[in-house]
Amino acid sequence: MKKIIKAGILPLLTILIFTDAQAQVSAGGGILYGFDIERIGIRVDGLYAINDDWRAAADFGYYFPESEFGIKVSWWELNLNAHYVFVDNEDFRAYALAGINYISFSVTEDNNSSGLIPGSDFFARTAAKEINLESETPPMPMNVDSFFSSFSYSGSETGLNIGIGGEYKVGFGSVFAELKFAGLGGNADQLVLGAGLRYDF
């Protein structure tokens, strides 16, 4: 995994160090949807235009928690990406993106539960890796009593991002949409759709 992360960080650092900067900063926010965890969330992001072709980007996403059967599941993620702009005209801009994804999740028992974890198999896959389960991914829902003695769990995964985005230019900045595969190479990969507004400064 460390080799994968280094391979993703190196191109971004190379762009930042060896490319002449043309100062344009954009910041904004919007919504996102994780197709594996099947949750909607909110995101904030920032962009730095290095030149006409390359941009450095960072965003933070928080997925609305899921609570069912007395079990609460929460997720948040941080992304560091490089954008390569391959279409840029008067009204529209399109770009490819690649970078690093870090996602953190936690599962807590908020009252007397029935022992069932809500949601998809996202938690099961990541938790199974963390505690070195060698068997196949347990089916959902899972019985917590057979998985943990007292239930409180958190973990994280790191992987690569690859995707595509588009921006429609408006007076204050742009309206954007992105679709990416997040967490590739890790145990928490999923397809993520995001959309929102960015303001130019």
Number of domains: 1
Tally the helices: 2
Mean pLDDT: 81
The rounded Rg comes to 19 Å
Shape: elongated
Major sheet characteristics: 8 strands, antiparallel, barrel
Name the strands of the widest sheet in spatial order. Answer: 1-2-3-4-5-6-7-8
What share of the residues does DSSP label as strand, in percent?
over 45%
* Helix-residue proportion: 10-25%
CATH topology: Porin
Unreliable spans: 131-141
Task: Please report the total strand number as a whole number.
Answer: 8
Task: Give a verbal description of the structure.
The chain has 201 residues and is mainly beta. The chain has a single domain, classed as Porin, CATH 2.40.160. The protein is built from two helices and eight strands. It has helices at residues 2-18, 122-130; strands spanning 25-34, 39-49, 54-68, 71-88, 92-109, 152-169, 173-184, 190-200. The protein has an eight-stranded antiparallel barrel. Strand 1 and strand 2 (39-49) form a beta hairpin. The longest helix is centred in the N-terminal third of the chain and has 17 residues, at 2-18.
